[in-house]
Amino acid sequence: MKIHLLFAFFLLITSIGCNKSGNVIPGDRDSTAFFAKGADVSWLTEMEAQSQPFINLQNQPQECMSLLKDMGMNAIRLRVWVNPADGYNGLQDVLAKAARAKNLGMQILIDFHYSDTWADPGHQQKPASWVPLNFNQLLDSVYAHTRAVLLKLQQQGCTPAWVQVGNETNDGLLWEDGRASTHMANYAQLFKKGYDAVKSVDENMKVIVHLSNGFDNNLYRWNLDGLKDHGATWDVVGISLYPTTSNWQSLNQQCMANMNDMVSRYGSEVMVTETGMSWTDSASCKQFLTDLIQKTKQVSQGKGLGVFYWEPEAHNNWKGYTLGAFNNLGKPTLALTAFN
């Protein structure tokens, strides 16, 4: 009996997997072992600097990340900008937020924008210091920047579980050199450099290719076929999905169909790395999130890895953003109870 118990324990340990810092890598051997319920809180330090309040459901002041953990979240997503003007989302800011997440026992997703500011489907502006570079130098810069940030995180014991090489790269990144619609091969080369940099730090970190409009299967096939045809590889397809109260049911269905297609077409795992809905209807948002989480868990072959809400802590019309999930007092709305 003891031999059987020891063997069972050995199987359990080897099925979990650890990174080089000894941290558990969710789903390293079994993607159903850990389901990420997370939030991108990259605005947090800036909000704290402006004394934005956060209170829990008992109306008591509470640090935001620990509050989100109490709401059922187990992971934090952080964006990285190369040389931001005010320092927020730069290396030191990211390291500070990552340490806070790690100290709470939360897993970390790092989101490289490869810009000094926002990168998204309509903006993929090179960092100012990279503008004079030729393409080969640009490739080297992607590798060096990615590796340097991840090594710093690893050195402080915050090795991420997942890393995005680019943010919502519907039409590539680092325009114009890496614009997918005109330079697909360049886009693939840039992505490969990011992928290689991640794996050089820790091969257990899962690399994400991240696109918006998770309901648009044609977009995903076009972009990922292009990457694949030019030799790029990835571990996870990351998805953004921002429905309204009137269309979330249909978009969730289309998103699930798209996720299943990513599994069957590429063998990829999938993750909703960004989502949100207007804070004005928290009941509908809770229904939407509950359904989206359930659908992601039901993705074929158990390859749905998790769901991240984008900046739920945004309140008081912070920077004009209205898709957060805290009310004007800084208290979580009903929507976030979907994660618990």
Provide the CATH topology: TIM Barrel
Number of domains: 1
* The CATH top-level class label: Alpha Beta
Characterize the largest beta sheet: strand count, sense, and whether it forms a barrel: 8 strands, parallel, barrel
Cα-based radius of gyration, to the nearest Å: 19 Å
Q: Unreliable runs, pLDDT <50, ≥5 residues? A: 1-32
Helix/strand-derived category reads: alpha/beta
Summarize the structure.
The protein has 340 residues and is α/β, with parallel strands linked by helices.
What does this protein look like?
The protein has 340 residues and is an alpha/beta fold. The chain has a single domain (36-339), classed as TIM Barrel, CATH 3.20.20. It is 38% helix and 14% strand. It is built from 9 helices and 8 strands. It has helices at residues 2-16, 44-49, 64-70, 91-103, 135-155, 184-201, 217-229, 248-266, 282-297, and strands at 36-40, 75-80, 107-112, 162-165, 206-211, 236-241, 269-275, 304-310. It has an 8-stranded parallel barrel with strand order 1-2-3-4-5-6-7-8, surrounded by 5 helices. Helix 5 (135-155) packs parallel to helix 6 and helix 8 (248-266) packs parallel to helix 9 (282-297). It is globular and about 55 Å long.
For this entry, give a set of tags:
340 residues; alpha/beta; TIM Barrel; eight-stranded parallel barrel; globular; disordered N terminus
Q: What's the structural blueprint in terms of helices and strands?
A:
Elements: H1 2-16, E1 36-40, H2 44-49, H3 64-70, E2 75-80, H4 91-103, E3 107-112, H5 135-155, E4 162-165, H6 184-201, E5 206-211, H7 217-229, E6 236-241, H8 248-266, E7 269-275, H9 282-297, E8 304-310
